[in-house]
Design goal:
Low-confidence stretches of chain A: 225-229
CATH class of the largest domain in chain A: Alpha Beta
Number of strands of chain A: 20
Strand content of chain B: under 5%
Distance between the termini of chain A: 20 Å
Mean pLDDT of chain A: 87
Radius of gyration of chain B: 20 Å
Oligomer: heterodimer
Structural class of chain A: alpha+beta
CATH superfamily of chain B: MetI-like
Number of domains of chain B: 1
Mean pLDDT of chain B: 88
Largest sheet of chain B: none
CATH class of chain B: Mainly Alpha
Helix content of chain A: 10-25%
Largest interface: A-B, 30 and 25 residues
CATH topology of chain B: MetI-like fold
Strand content of chain A: 35-45%
CATH superfamily of the largest domain in chain A: P-loop containing nucleotide triphosphate hydrolases
Helix content of chain B: over 70%
Structural class of chain B: mainly alpha
Shape of chain A: globular
Largest sheet of chain A: 6 strands, mixed
Low-confidence stretches of chain B: none
Number of strands of chain B: 0
CATH architecture of chain B: Orthogonal Bundle
Radius of gyration of chain A: 22 Å
Number of helices of chain A: 8
CATH architecture of the largest domain in chain A: 3-Layer(aba) Sandwich
Chain lengths: ~375, ~240
């Protein structure tokens, strides 16, 4: 369990964050330059806050009030970087054993074999990091951090350097860490899909401040009005239940009170909760129940608000039947011509092919 | 070709042995200081950093005679430090082979520090951060991560310093003179031969010896460095 309350001024950038995490994955979410990595550095002891207090499992790591500063090597905080940062002069096995050697013997509750099996890296032992693929490197890096028996794992954009296939390979592993090794994780990312899939709690950072804290569903759709060029980054997260797999068409059915979401691929297991990220630019609005369209996913709701400015776009917020909110970006012209206003019933149409199957989380 | 042409005299052998001993001593003795200075210059920010950097590099740009003379003033028998050192600790540098080694070390020091510093600067700091987060304190991180990764630079530094020490002449002769059997190195011997009219053959022989030693050192360094570079070969 960690609680962070710290501020640090670095040049023109001013960081001031307050948040906590107990079990599971907490995501630090925000654009590059929002202060995510700086926050990680403060927790890991790579930099000192000007003011603040960071507590991990009842141990005060930093307290500027009492001039407490635990050096990084005594914090037992695991770090996983974007680019693995394996020791190039050591073999995979030596890399894995590095932290284990320094870890206190009595407390190293994590079994070596279990970590190796889970991550599937046993066959890489003799190799040098330079001879590993990106995905293999990242798995070894996770194993190395884990074997040092940390109290918390900090992952700084661990998937950002990987291609989509590798991402799909590592994401379930991170879920395994959370579920089987029961290690709390602070996960830094700017990717909505990863955050929605992994994190129970999302801390959204903007310009060095915590802009929102909550579930992915609550936090992701928020944020300032992002029209213009930033409009492609705007998304919403909805939570449904994995209702079934259509093997014939290779689709996954996710049920939500507002309608059924069809997703490509087979994201098991059936019956569990699933979160889906829907981009605001991928939604089509209709005031009547649509027919004769290829779109398979229709979600019903009422308009909760329309954000417009002088630009050509309008952000329509829709309260879905049951729970959850969706943000759809359409043109101002469309809003006027449909005569959309608060409280109107609308149908939000989403193309299945536009949805990223990565986002389906068994949470 | 008569045998006298290739056979070395006992005095010449002495000069060669002395040269190697002085160069080796100078190189090995300055290594810890060299690593420390390189690390400090590469990684730390402290007041007077530029002054330290300048001091280290000074022998590179000063005339060697000046460096030798400064050593004489500071560490000579009646020098500022030399006098108390001799009186209280019995340590004497002037006109001793140890003094020659000291002069060589000073002259070779900038050549040693620079490549080590460059290779430390080239190490991604997050590797050291990673080591720290895995429980390694500063000393362990240095020994297990920084130093092995700086190995190629370290080897270059050692070779350059050794080569410089082997060829050092100006500072050495100024500080410890040219005493056969004590401070007469190969360079000093060649110089002496060139001063007498019928010693051309001697001078030539010693020149060949110099070339052989220098080439040998180059080859060894090349081989060792290739091996070291392969070991620390970084990501793609």
């Amino acid at each position: 369990m960690i609680s962070v309350d710290a501020s640090l001024k670095l040049g023109a950038f001013d960081l001031d964050v307050v948040f906590g995490n107990d079990i599971g994955i907490t995501a630090l979410f925000g654009r590059s330059g929002s202060g995510k990595s700086m926050t990680i550095n403060l927790i890991a002891g790579l930099s000192r806050p000007d003011r603040g207090r960071i507590v991990l499992d009842n141990q005060v790591l930093v307290d500027t009030g009492t001039s407490t500063f635990v050096p990084r090597h005594r914090r037992r905080v695991g770090l996983v970087f974007q680019d693995a940062q394996l020791f190039p002069h050591f073999s995979v096995k030596q890399n894995l054993l590095f932290g284990r050697w320094f870890a206190p013997r009595d407390e190293s509750s994590i079994a070596f074999d279990k970590v190796i099996d889970t991550l599937g890296i046993g066959h890489l032992f003799g190799r040098r990091p330079a001879r590993l693929s990106g995905g293999e490197k990242q798995r070894v890096a996770i194993g190395r951090a884990l074997l040092a028996a940390p109290k918390i794992l900090l992952m700084d954009e661990p998937l950002a350097a990987l291609d989509n296939e590798r991402k799909l390979e590592i994401l379930p592993l991170i879920e395994t860490l959370r579920d089987e090794f029961r290690i709390p994780i602070v996960y830094v990312s700017h990717a909505v899909e990863e955050v929605a899939r992994l994190a129970a709690r999302v801390v959204m950072l903007e310009h060095g401040r915590v802009a929102a804290i909550g579930t992915a569903e609550e936090v992701v759709g928020r944020g300032r009005r992002e029209t213009g060029e930033c409009r492609f980054g705007r998304s919403s997260v909805i939570t449904g239940r994995l209702a079934g797999i259509d093997a014939r068409y290779g689709l996954t059915e996710i049920s939500h009170p507002a309608g059924t979401v069809w997703l490509s691929g087979r994201a098991g297991p059936v019956g569990r909760e699933a979160r889906v990220v829907i981009k605001a630019t991928d939604i089509t609005l209709s005031t009547i129940s649509p027919r004769n369209l290829s779109v398979r996913t229709t979600l019903t709701g009422t308009v909760a608000g329309i954000d417009v400015d002088d630009g050509p776009f309008a952000a329509v917020k829709i309260d879905l039947v049951g729970h959850g909110q969706l943000v759809a970006l359409v043109t101002r012209k469309a809003v006027d011509e449909l005569g959309l206003g608060d409280g109107d019933r609308v149908f939000a149409l989403v193309k299945t092919v536009a949805l990223d199957e990565r986002t389906v989380a068994a949470g | 070709m008569n045998t006298a042409m290739i056979e070395l005299s006992p005095e010449e052998w002495t000069a060669i042995r002395l040269s190697l001993r002085i160069a080796t001593t100078a190189t090995i003795a300055s290594l810890p200081f060299g690593i420390f200075a390189a690390y400090a210059l590469a990684r730390w920010r402290f007041p007077g950093k530029m002054v330290l950097d300048g001091l280290i590099h000074l022998p590179l740009v000063l005339p060697p005679v000046v460096t030798g003379y400064m050593l004489l003033i500071i560490l000579g028998r009646r020098g500022v430090l030399g006098a108390p050192l001799a009186e209280y600790l019995g340590i004497v540098f002037s006109f001793r082979w140890t003094g020659a080694a000291l002069a060589c070390a000073v002259m070779g020091f900038p050549l040693m520090v620079r490549p080590i510093r460059l290779s430390i600067e080239a190490i991604d700091r997050r590797l050291e951060d990673a080591a720290g987060s895995l429980g390694a304190n500063g000393a362990w991180t240095f020994a297990l991560v920084t130093l092995p990764l700086a190995l190629p630079g370290l080897i270059v530094g050692l070779i350059l310093c050794f080569a410089k020490a082997l060829g050092e002449f100006g500072a050495t002769i100024t500080f410890v003179s040219n005493i056969p059997g004590e401070t007469q190195t190969i360079s000093a011997a060649i110089y002496t031969y060139t001063q007498s009219p019928d010693s051309d053959a001697n001078a030539l022989r010693m020149t060949v010896v110099s070339i052989v030693i220098a080439l040998g050192a180059l080859i060894v360094s090349e081989v060792v460095q290739r091996y070291a570079s392969k070991r620390v070969a970084s990501v793609e």
